[in-house]
Amino acid sequence: MLEKFRIKDEDTVLVKHGFLQTTVASIFNKLGVNPEDSESGSEVLVEADLRGVDSHGVSNQLRSYVKGYQEGRINPTPNWRIIRESPSTATIDCDGGLGIILTPKAMDLAIQKAKITGVGMVTMRNSRHLGMAAYHAMRALKYDFIGLCMSATGTPLVLPTYGQEAMLGTNPISIAIPAGKEHPFVLDMATSSIAANKIQLAKRLGIELSGGWIAEPNGNPIMDKIPAQEIGTGPGGTGYPPVLLPLGSSREMGSHKGYGLGCMVEILCGILSGGGFSLLGDRDHYKHMVAAYDIEAFSPLQEFKETMDEFLHSLKSSKPAEGQTRVMVPGQPEFEEKTERLSKGIPLHIEVITWFRKTCSELEVECLF
Amino acid sequence: MLEKFRIKDEDTVLVKHGFLQTTVASIFNKLGVNPEDSESGSEVLVEADLRGVDSHGVSNQLRSYVKGYQEGRINPTPNWRIIRESPSTATIDCDGGLGIILTPKAMDLAIQKAKITGVGMVTMRNSRHLGMAAYHAMRALKYDFIGLCMSATGTPLVLPTYGQEAMLGTNPISIAIPAGKEHPFVLDMATSSIAANKIQLAKRLGIELSGGWIAEPNGNPIMDKIPAQEIGTGPGGTGYPPVLLPLGSSREMGSHKGYGLGCMVEILCGILSGGGFSLLGDRDHYKHMVAAYDIEAFSPLQEFKETMDEFLHSLKSSKPAEGQTRVMVPGQPEFEEKTERLSKGIPLHIEVITWFRKTCSELEVECLF
């Protein structure tokens, strides 16, 4: 079923990631971002595309970033600063800078702290979108550290259990953990049952929605499939408002857990950083939290990696359910996708290619594809 | 629907928590636990009963602990020791000691470290059951710290997404966060869609199971209601094996997220502490992780508490779904229950009262009710 969301091959062009990354960096640079930050931001976006996380790559996100810079909602030259600090912690005010550019800096700070005390944890306020949360968590992997990243997204889209009003962002949680011979464990999940853009995508493609994703206008979970054309445009519009159910979907199936995790992200990213919560701020105001754990501070690294290999291998070689071909572990589909896309290129929809050429032409930068 | 799991009033006796706690401490003490640890362990158990978390209070857990001590599976005088340490971290080998007694010590160590560096994080291996995870997370509240507790439970009971074999424990996650005038935020959730003992309880009481809780023997999620008598006794037995689905229940509704969180708990508690993972160890081997965050290390405490009050109040005063009376926040039902039980007493089933009197008589300790 999830295959339905994939772009059909005939509508795509394969672009080598190097060309894509250089072009994206040129766009950022032209919008006023310094060269180093432009490079770093383009790496975050293209890494999402390489991993097959198209929702967080250039196709969806870049145009919203370009618009944000052009409309003055994202600050290209933020005076970001550490406003509070202790040996293992820091809070950063991002001065309206883009999360994909500032979160790697925050993670590097968390890693520096973890090198000294074993754990580093940094909260960020007044930021903008951070792209694929997994990128930032995975940044800890090259130090053989565990990386964690959460983000309180600006727009309330998710219902509390038994609620009728959207009160929480989709609030993703990501954790990246190194292994030995196996690929790293990388979890990256919204705390809603489905990503927000899947609803709009289903509507655009005319695909039936699965049960457990959205609610009736009266707040009660819709647990049966519904036709895409019945999805409305928002509160007060016609059809079902596209507010999302928390992970777990209904109280009986544990939606209070997804709701609770969503609240936890609001608090650890937003309230702990002094950035408030989604309902208070404007939709551009994102709050984040990153953390790094030095494995050696808990156990011998080599032993840890060997046990990780055993654990991941056990899961992957366990018996699949009838009708399924294999059991996968978090991070595995993306790892496999990246291997393929590194060699074959990143499939971009022709409409995205057109947008790139038009945007590059308007900004007078070179489009390398 | 969840009300069905409550004990009917006519079958219960109300017991004052002080009498219950003293009696439980006497039992622990008689089983070889020192007086101080006996007190501490009884506090953890009775706190679960006070909060209405009966599944983790004296009724279910105490008899399994008594049996564990009597059969030599729990060590009453563990030589627990810190085997690795850094300014913000530690790993403890618990020497087979009971988690309800040793986890408070680990949390106190995490708090000590957080006082100095801002964050403390302690993993524990070779432990036994830790009772209600929320107790340990909440221990940080009196310092105005955020507390976190996870536990990798010994027995594989939860299926991976698309899997047919139970590979993970129910692996709870708890986080406790202080507020100002509002009660604290306390999330305590298994990473399965339903707690394991709810399945057995439904079977005993002859209650229909909700969809999304368990799987067909071939691993495919059962998304419709099923009669309790169709639940089997385990792999190879008749009926549906009582293996649990991860939070999210089916792939479409996000079970890969619950599965991913379950894996995360296995790794942070088990592999990070050097204690391995559930599939490797024996069923008595529990692994835990606790952490404490000093709020002041990130933001001014008073401001944090005021924003927490605003956040919790916003959620609680948001419009309920049709047919529901109110929106609650994590920790609220337990807080309300505790207020009532502190004054009225803890309702214990007559069968539990009988067990207490018999056990006290056998152990030659006084039963105070």
Structure, explained:
Two copies of one chain form a homodimer. With 369 residues, chain A is of the alpha+beta class. Chain A has three domains: 9-77 and 345-369, Orthogonal Bundle (Hypothetical Oxidoreductase Yiak, Chain: A, domain 1); 78-192 and 251-316, Malate/L-lactate/L-sulpholactate dehydrogenase, NADPH binding domain (Ribosomal Protein S8, Chain: A, domain 1), CATH 3.30.1370; 194-243, Wheat Germ Agglutinin (Isolectin 2), domain 1 (2-Layer Sandwich). Helix content of chain A is 37%, strand content 15%. Chain A is built from ten helices and nine strands. The first copy, chain A, has helices at 17-30, 35-50, 58-70, 99-117, 133-138, 196-205, 255-271, 301-316, 332-344, 350-363, and strands at 12-15, 81-86, 89-93, 119-127, 145-152, 173-177, 185-189, 286-294, 346-349. In chain A, strands 2-3-4-8-5-6-7 form a seven-stranded mixed β-sheet. Chain A has a two-stranded antiparallel sheet with strand order 1-9. In chain A, helix 4 (99-117) links the parallel strand 3 (89-93) and strand 4 (119-127). At the A-B interface, strand 4, strand 7, helix 7 and helix 8 of A face strand 3, strand 4, strand 7, helix 7 and helix 8 of B.
Write a concise keyword list for the protein shown above.
homodimer, 369 residues, alpha+beta, Hypothetical Oxidoreductase Yiak, Chain: A, domain 1, Ribosomal Protein S8, Chain: A, domain 1, Wheat Germ Agglutinin (Isolectin 2), domain 1, 3 domains, seven-stranded mixed β-sheet, two-stranded antiparallel ribbon, 10 helices
